[in-house]
């Protein structure tokens, strides 16, 4: 049955708002749920709450804990956050940070830390996931504790900007978990909007609270990206949205934020690529990759941005395109060379299947379809490949074979995909692949196509 215009509009709106929540989720993975604490932001604290703005021990635990989390060392990060919770039992920071740590670890285990996965509409299709009930219980208990402590402070003093920030961050963290872990998109939208509302109130109380503008800037961008006839439905209190203003807000957080600067960099890497500006994404991704050397995700983001830049330069400057492509594959090669260290007991949270998957995506972007098909299939056959990713890589291998003109081999793999549990809409795409050969229309984002002259 064909969809009506209204149904198509609602479907688009749902996906677009889900993208907002997912982007918000990824930010949280990198510590959006921090409190932006400085003297001007804690002057309204209640008297029974310790002044952590000037507490050196709090700053040490918070800074070291999140450096460890950024480097994906979960156990060590948790040790810091538990100590923070012990020292400041009436403050929401300890529970909030522990919940954020749990989200990051869970998403890393399921190979969902890489932002390019969230740019694919098919991520939003299919049934909800059913994560480990023990993880769900732990997450809900931690976020409930953080929200309860923050709400108590707001009730005692409605002008406590720091407490209100934590209250919004708790809602945002629930949205992150709902989308990234459970894939419950509709249920997460309310929490995402609630986070934006709370953080807008924070900025009203304290205009210098720049970190709170992170969610506001992201929401501004997403609403600005909607078609005109949907803006009224998605607007928040008459807030119509603007992509340009949203990007400018995130850029201001990079320059003026206290704790959320790297969160804003992560978002801008993804949004610059969406806008057809990979050359602006590359330096930010390079900075993140250099600062957090043990975080493989930032290195994959850098390689993705370099490949996108090379794809655009193929039209105008093949020499630069080749240079950036070589750099991207050098990133992949270095990551792959490091994986044997895990067998010697070195601390690592880098999944080989995801790194090889991104390597194969790079080959595909360079139109090396035979090599990409073989690499995708190699990922699928890894003994410890994550099941959903293994399904997805079989689909991508089949699509690459279609692009290489090997239709019979592609059909065999499409049937293999249909014999496996569905993942990210793989069954629907495999069925389409059986009906007709795959044509790669996702090669570039709308912004990239416009920038390259393919779209006016």
Distance between the termini: 32 Å
Category from helices, strands and their pairing: mainly alpha
User: What is the number of strand segments?
Assistant: 0
- Percentage of residues in strands: under 5%
- Tell me roughly what share of residues is in helical segments: 55-70%
- What's the Cα radius of gyration? 22 Å
Order of helices and strands: HHHHHHHHHHHHHHHHHHHHH
> Which consecutive residue ranges, at least 5 long each, have pLDDT under 50?
1-50, 341-347, 451-456
Annotation field: number of helices: 21
Largest sheet: none
Average pLDDT metric: 79
Task: Note the overall shape.
Answer: globular
Describe the 3D structure.
The protein is mostly helical and 456 residues long. The chain has a domain at 10-261. It has 21 helices and no strands. Helix 1 packs antiparallel against helix 12 (261-274), helix 5 (93-109) runs antiparallel to helix 6 and helix 14 runs antiparallel to helix 15.
Write the layout of secondary structure elements.
Blueprint: H1 5-29, H2 39-42, H3 56-70, H4 74-87, H5 93-109, H6 133-156, H7 161-181, H8 185-205, H9 213-224, H10 228-234, H11 243-256, H12 261-274, H13 278-291, H14 296-313, H15 318-338, H16 352-365, H17 369-380, H18 387-403, H19 407-418, H20 426-435, H21 446-451
């Amino acid at each position: 049955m064909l969809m009506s215009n209204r149904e198509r509009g609602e479907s688009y709106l749902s996906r677009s708002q889900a993208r907002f929540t997912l982007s918000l989720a990824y930010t949280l993975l990198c510590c959006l749920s921090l409190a932006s604490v400085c003297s001007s932001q804690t002057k309204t604290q209640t008297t029974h709450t310790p002044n952590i703005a000037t507490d050196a021990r709090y700053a040490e635990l918070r800074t070291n804990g999140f450096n460890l989390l950024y480097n994906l060392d979960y156990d060590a990060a948790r040790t810091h956050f538990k100590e923070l919770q012990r020292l400041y039992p009436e403050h929401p920071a300890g529970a909030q940070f522990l919940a954020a740590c749990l989200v990051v670890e869970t998403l890393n285990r399921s190979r969902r830390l890489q932002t390019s996965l969230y740019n694919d509409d098919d991520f939003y299709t299919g049934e909800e996931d059913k994560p480990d009930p023990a993880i769900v219980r732990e997450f809900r208990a931690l976020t409930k504790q953080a929200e309860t402590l923050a709400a108590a402070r707001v009730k005692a003093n409605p002008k406590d900007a720091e407490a209100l920030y934590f209250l919004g961050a708790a809602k945002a963290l629930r949205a992150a978990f709902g989308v990234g872990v459970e894939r419950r998109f509709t249920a997460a939208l309310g929490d995402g909007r609630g986070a934006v509302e709370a953080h807008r109130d924070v900025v009203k109380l304290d205009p210098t609270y720049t970190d709170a503008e992170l969610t506001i800037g992201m929401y501004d961008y997403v609403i600005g990206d909607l078609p005109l006839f949907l803006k009224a439905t998605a607007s928040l209190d008459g807030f119509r949205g603007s992509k340009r203003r949203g990007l400018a807000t995130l850029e201001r957080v990079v320059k003026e934020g206290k704790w959320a600067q790297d969160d804003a960099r992560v978002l801008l890497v993804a949004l610059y690529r969406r806008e057809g500006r990979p050359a602006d994404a590359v330096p930010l991704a390079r900075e993140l990759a250099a600062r957090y050397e043990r975080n493989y995700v930032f290195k994959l983001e850098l390689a993705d941005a370099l490949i996108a830049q090379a794809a655009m330069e193929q039209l105008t400057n093949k020499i630069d395109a080749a240079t950036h492509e070589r750099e991207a594959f050098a990133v992949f090669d270095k990551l792959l060379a490091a994986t044997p260290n895990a067998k010697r007991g070195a601390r690592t949270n880098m999944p080989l299947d995801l790194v090889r998957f991104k390597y194969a995506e790079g080959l595909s972007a360079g139109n090396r379809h035979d090599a990409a098909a073989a690499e995708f299939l190699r990922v699928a056959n890894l003994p410890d490949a994550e099941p959903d990713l293994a399904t997805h890589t079989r689909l991508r291998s089949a699509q690459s074979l279609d692009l290489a003109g090997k239709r019979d081999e592609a059909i065999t793999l499409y049937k293999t995909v249909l014999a496996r549990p569905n993942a990210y809409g793989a069954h629907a795409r495999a069925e389409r692949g059986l009906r007709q050969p795959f044509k790669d229309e996702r090669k570039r984002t709308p912004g990239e196509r416009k920038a390259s002259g393919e779209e006016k």
